[in-house]
């Protein structure tokens, strides 16, 4: 666990709210140490959740700790890929700036040409969701190129980065839990399909607590199925 934490060292909290300090210290211990999920990945999840909420200083501290715990740059960049799809250009670029600050800037390289084959997007949606959800069915019908774009970005997030699919799904859960989003349910299911345990899913949700408070757990904790 980190030697120091600004919230745990808040003079007002230490003096007036010992229960709050003690409780948050437990959450920090869960996020910062190996458990069902390795600590370096939990640091990445916490960093992604923090930058998603606009908390850049917190995100940098989480990513610096993840690097110190052995997270390589290519795996850290998985959060950039995820945020580009899930939260758009501004949030992704904010994380990219933190990534460069922590790991150093990456040399530019030409983009590899990628395209979706006819019918590939629809087949992927059916395979992942079990059926084509109404919003994606509408996109296929009305703006087919938009459906291809959605498929390619979703594929990049979950299947084509340097993290195993299970960890990509867990990071999605952390970010969505930080937003108290009902979309968490889709990725809890996806994480289970990818082999995640209930304990791993629980720790991913808790990675949202530093950025979003204990309400993050209440938004997604009911989705778990303890044995």
Termini gap = 29 Å
Beta-strand proportion:
under 5%
**Topology, number of strands:** 0
Biggest beta sheet attributes: none
Helix content: 55-70%
Instruction: State Rg.
Output: 18 Å
Mean pLDDT: 96
Low-pLDDT sequence parts: none
Give a topology summary.
Blueprint: H1 11-16, H2 18-32, H3 39-52, H4 56-68, H5 73-86, H6 89-103, H7 120-129, H8 134-142, H9 144-158, H10 165-178, H11 184-193, H12 198-206, H13 209-212, H14 215-220
Helix pairs in contact: 3-4, 3-5, 3-6, 3-10, 4-6, 5-6, 5-9, 7-9, 8-9, 10-11, 10-12
Task: Briefly characterize the structure.
With 227 residues, the protein is mainly α. The protein is built from 14 helices and no strands. 68% of the residues lie in helices and 0% in strands.
Question: Mind explaining what this structure looks like?
Answer:
- With 227 residues, this protein is an all-alpha fold.
- It is 68% helix and 0% strand.
- The protein has 14 helices and no strands.
- α3 runs parallel beside α5.
- The longest helix has 15 residues.
- It is globular and about 60 Å long.
- The relative contact order is 0.13.
- The mean pLDDT is 96.
